[in-house]
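TL;DR need structure tokens for one chain.
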Amino acid sequence: MNKRLMRLRATKHLRDLCAETEFHRAQLIQPLFVVEGLGDDEEIPGLRGTRRQSIESMVRQVESDLGAGVTQFLLFPSPAGKREAGFDHGFTQEAIRALRRHFGADLCLWIDTCLCSSTTHGHCAVHGQGRIDLEATLEELARAAVAFAEAGADGISPSDMMDGRVARIRQRLDENGFDLVPIMSYSTKFASNFYGPFRIAADSAPQFGDRRHYQIDVRHRTDALAASVRCAEEGADLLMVKPGMTSVDLIAPIRQETGRAVGAYQVSGEYAGLVLLAEHGLTNFEAALLETWHVFKRAGAQFIITYGARYAKSMGR
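>> reply
TL;DR here they are.
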């Protein structure tokens, strides 16, 4: 798989994200949750400052975030009509176009590319005859990636952990003229107990079983490294560990093995732990949050996905 080095040089946002000699707000990515058919904003337990929002409310939030110095966003769409296959990406495209129409090139917009929020069963794949239909899943993910790029996404971020999904997405993007759209892969993603608040936010809790047959066992270091190496070989431009705090030992080895920039996702349960400590007067929230970011950077993280990115300016970052 040929690596297009120019993909990560194409815009100022991408160049700032990948700068290796400084740590600043440009390397923090703020998640957004947009929900089809939602009226009023909905609070998410544990995720201080982050809400489930309509497109209109999300646009207002992003305007505020841009004023606070946030430039990188990761969008998690939650469509109303859940299905088992043949997914409709119209709502996500509408959300992308709304952000692009209002803010143009002022932001860098990554789109979480998965099926869990769209399926009736909450898993990250198409199921057939009681098991994952891998081929159908890869085609659905690739179709979604192209749809998001057509709507104006800056980057695609597959989080499903299916075998071969980066290669299929890269192939389809290139075939459709989106060869400069980068892929930020959830390349080492563990089957973790720290995703609870997120599953409420994205309405993506599995309706049966769990995700241990496609996400990585936390006991398996070799598998964790191999997963990121495979994503790099398949054409991922940026790699990621998730959860961040429990995977800091892997960031430097993955970078050494792949030569790719590696980020950390400070997941909902990790972030909510800081919120809970602060609510009980057991820590200073902003000081503890900043400490975690420095730990990620010390471990070698190039970028950090965190629900607290919108607080960075007030913290002097």
